[in-house]
Structures are given as C-alpha cells and as structure tokens.
Amino acid sequence: MKKRIGISIFPEQSSFEEDQKYLDKAWSLGYEVVFTSILHFVGSENEKEKAKKVLRVVKYAKELGFYTIVDVEYKSMDLIGISINDASKCNEYGIDCLRLDSPSLPAEIAFVTHNKAKVDIQLNMSNNDSLIDNVMDFKPIANRLSGCHNFYPLEFTGLPFDYFMECNKRYLKYRLNTSAFIGSHHGVMTSAVGQKELPTIEEIRYLPVSQQAKVLFYTDEIDTVLFGNAYATDEELKELASVDRDEVTFDLKCVEGVTDIEKQVLLFDHYRRGDITEYFIRATQSRVKFKNDDFPARKSKSFYNRGDVVIINNSDKKYKAEIHIILEDNFADKIGKYNYLGTISESEKRLIDFVVPWKQFRFNLV
C-alpha cells in the first residue's frame, strides 16, 4: 500500500474558517487522511454543539477528498446517532472510518465491518492484546479493518520502540493497514487540552517532525503517519510532506574538507550488501561507478564511532570509493584508508537499524 500522511483536527476548539484553511493547506501539500475525535468531550458542557462542529468540518474534509477517521466509543456514537449495529449516518456525515477506542466484543467488531454503508473500522493497536486475533476468528471484511496506535500527550507515557514493534506484529500478520502519530511542536489543540507533542513512541517526542516520521515509515510497518495535535505550522506541514516515505534517507552535514567528488558519491543511490559485516554498513556499487575518479587521502581520524560515514580513499586501489557507515564504537582505521565525511546525527541513529541486507539508502546533504 502507498504510504500516506495525515493531520488531526479538533473543531470544538477552533473555528470552521480556521479548520477550513488548515485542511486546504494540508490537501495542497499531499495530505490524504484526517483524524478527529468526539469521545474526549462526551459528557462535557455543550457536547451536542461540539459534535455538530466536528461533523461540519469532517463533511468539508470529505468533500475536499480526505479519508476521514472519527475516534468514538459507545456514548459518543449515541451522541451523533450511530451505533455498533447501524453506521448508516456515517455516509451523511462524510465519515469513512470509525476508530473504536473502547473495547467491544470481537464478534460485534467483525459484524460491523459488514455494514451496508461500507464504513471502515479501526482498532487501537497499542495494547498488544489478542483482540485482533479474536476479531479475525469471526470473519470480518478484512479490507474494511485497520489498526491505529494511540498518541500520548503526557511526557514519558509514549510506547517504547521495541514494544511498539511487538504491537505491530499482531496486525501485520493479517496484512491490515496501520497508522501511528507524530507531534507538532507548536499545535496546542489536542484531546488533552494544554499538552503538545502527541507521538506514539516516546523516543521521538522532541525530534523534528521529519525525523519522527522517518522512524515510523522506515520500520516498513506503518502505512499512515499523522500529526496528533493541531495546528502544525506551515513549515512543519511542508517538512513532513517532503519526507521520502520509502527510501531510508539520512540528513548528513559534511565535515570541512570533503571534496566535490566525495559529495557526488554520497548522493549516489546506495544499498547495503547482502553478505553483511557487523562492523559497518558496506555500500560497494559506488566503487564501480567512480572507479576512475581520484580520492586522495585526507587527514582524518584513527578511530571511528557508530554513525560515522567514511569513504575509502586512494590508499586502497581495489576498494576506493566504497561508502561505509560505521556500526561499532572505537573502530580503528589501521592503514589510513578512510576519508571522514561526517556523522549521522544522534536523532537519526535509530534509522541505521533499518538498513538491513540489500536495503537501499540515501544521503541528503544539509
């Protein structure tokens, strides 16, 4: 499935006109999915008016062409006149998908995927429980079923990365579509008023939005990445829209002295050899492409650490122009064959783990 990007909106906290502008901007940049919620204000003052505001904006988003998701549970479904047994009003509202936040019986969930309105159903992926297995026992229409992780407004409550990956497995084995969240560093509208940064994974909370999205997309386990809070700035919207969603891409700042030809090698399309070594990621096709070019030795380091990017210089005629990403700390260059090019930033070192055998990767020089 094509990987998509999306936004969240909270119309009860804004005006229709402001939401309209935000949706128009996002649509123009290639965003395709809109997430919103009703459940977080059920039982509050003016809940019916708030629900009307949400549904008006959802309708507009649908008219633009967005795929629309509304987070609900039983009480919020009652508020807008739908139920687990009758989702027909969703077509009138412009709702493509209901995200069922609170637990329902597996048989009910499977049954509702057969609804005549053809509304999709989304489940919470973040609990790592057997709900999805039990739902699948009751033969749902699988292409109307998907998973979406939670977002976590409160600092230190986001999922650990390894646990996140465990949660994904339960949905991936059924080939279901998956979604997860990143956080704007500016949007103050959320389901938890007063919080910012609404990521799924804790370790990405304070990263630039592009780097948050890379961690999610490059697992190759998340199909849709959405901002969890609103409004993301124009710059943040553009930043996420510009992320390569498929090829692992490192932002690399070259050290002083890197030559033009070395920069050309960095910009080559690389892949990790299949017969791997544990000491570095080895990309060898550049030595074929640039075999006739000159790579004089420069004063570099004697020891390298994880994330350092190097090129083999003229000291080794056979292997010159190979690019290596060092994987071990205190890795010694005993004969001075390396020219040091730069170091992958701490905030992108997680991405190194995604460069598995035969995986293509790129550098974006910043």
From TrEMBL:
> What name does UniProt use for this protein?
Outer surface protein
**Mind telling me which InterPro entries this protein's record contains?**
Aldolase_TIM, Cyclophilin-like_dom_sf, GH, MupG, MupG_C, MupG_N
Q: Where is the 6-phospho-N-acetylmuramidase C-terminal domain?
A: 249-364
Q: Which Gene3D superfamilies match?
A: Aldolase class I, Cyclophilin-like
Species of the source: Spiroplasma tabanidicola
Any Pfam family from its record, for instance, is MupG_N
Any idea where the 6-phospho-N-acetylmuramidase N-terminal domain is?
A: 5-241
